[in-house]
């Protein structure tokens, strides 16, 4: 159970970081999101992509090996 919980959490976190990367230009214009780290330049876009990719890989590996391959495919 714990592998599934952590694996899904990592996959969701990966999606959130990818979303922040994609929306970084839009986030500059919005009051609510203008203070995000990518918008402020505290983290480079390249680093955020690497981080998102590593989160996703770790999550998918936990789902594949910790839960089962079906859980991994459903995470895609």
Please name the defining characteristics of this protein.
mainly alpha; about 80 residues
Structure in words:
The chain is mainly alpha-helical and 76 residues long. It has one domain. 78% of the residues lie in helices and 0% in strands. The chain is built from 5 helices and no strands. Helix 1 runs antiparallel to helix 4. The longest helix has 23 residues, at 45-67. The chain is elongated and about 40 Å long. 17% of the residues are buried.
Give the distance, in angstroms, between the N- and C-terminal Cα atoms: 19 Å
Q: Helix tally?
A: 5
| Total number of distinct structural domains | 1
Low-confidence stretches: none
**Estimated radius of gyration:** 14 Å
Mean pLDDT: 91
Shape: elongated
Q: Give the fraction of residues assigned to helices.
A: over 70%
Note the beta-strand portion.
under 5%
Number of strands: 0
Could you say which structural class the secondary elements and strand pairing correspond to? mainly alpha
User: Which sheet architecture does the biggest sheet show?
Assistant: none
Order of helices and strands: HHHHH
GO molecular function, one term: protoheme IX farnesyltransferase activity
Subcellular location: Membrane
Protein name: Heme O synthase CtaB
Organism: human gut metagenome
Short summary of the structure?
This protein has 76 residues and is mostly helical. It has one domain (2-75). The chain has five helices and no strands.
């Amino acid at each position: 159970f714990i592998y599934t919980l952590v694996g899904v959490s990592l996959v969701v976190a990966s999606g959130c970081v990818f979303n922040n990367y994609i929306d970084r230009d839009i986030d500059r214009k919005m009051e609510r999101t203008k203070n995000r780290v990518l918008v402020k330049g505290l983290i480079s876009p390249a680093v955020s992509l690497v981080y998102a990719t590593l989160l996703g890989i770790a999550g998918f590996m936990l789902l594949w090996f910790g839960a089962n391959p079906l859980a991994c495919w459903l995470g895609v």
